[in-house]
Amino acid sequence: MNIVAVCGSPRKGNTEFILKRFLIGAEDFGHKTDLVLLREKKIERCGGCLACDDDGVCGIRDDMNAIIEKLKANDLIVFGSPNYFSNVSGLMKDFFDRLHPVLVDDKLSGKKAIAIMAGEAEEAKSAEAAIATMTSVVDSFKMTMIGDLYLSGKKAQDVETNTESVQKIDDFAKNILS
What span, in angstroms and rounded, lies between the C-alpha atoms of 116 and 148? Predict the structure, then answer.
């Protein structure tokens, strides 16, 4: 299976670590992986022009059209974002808004998706609204959500230095991908 993970964190920290660890687990099971770090990409905000309704291509010339092609080329898409005020990051929201052209060509339909969140709160309940945002996007594109994972971490390396959290990532990857 081909897997692409999209990281909506503005910093190198917990969300990116979780995604990378998950992808390492995927590679251990023989899957091909790719990681897109939105903070390293130029992604303009959607202007709502709806020009993409005509041909399924956004007229804004930035990195988004290339990212969309990556999503289309993979079987499983992993959306990763920090939990900011019970929602996804601004980077991830801008990314989701710019997926509108894909609604026209329906090329994500039938693909699998996973939601991964990292946040300051200890309990996963704090991420329910953010995961619901990701699930709503997945549903809009007729994809299938096959799992979600929330891990607590405030400072940039909190998840990475917590052996219990690392084990949760490994177990999650094993349960989803084996």
Answer: 6
Q: Which residues are registered as beta bridge partners of 7?
A: 37, 80
Q: Cβ(6)–Cβ(95) under 8 Å?
A: yes
Instruction: Tell me: pLDDT of 125 over 80.
Output: no
Is residue 123's pLDDT more than 80?
Answer: no
- Distance CA(136)–CA(169), nearest Å, equals 23
Tokens of 53: 């309704």
Cα gap 113→130, rounded to integer Å: 15
- Percentage of the chain lying above the pLDDT 70 cut: 100
Q: Is 156 helix (H, G, I), strand (E, B) or coil?
A: coil
Residues 6+ apart with CB under 8 A from 21: 166, 169, 170, 173
First to last CA, the chain: 11
* Cβ–Cβ < 8 Å for 59, 46: no
Domains along the chain? 2-177 (3.40.50.360)
Kindly report, residue by residue over 58-69, the tens digit of the pLDDT. Answer: 889 999 999 999
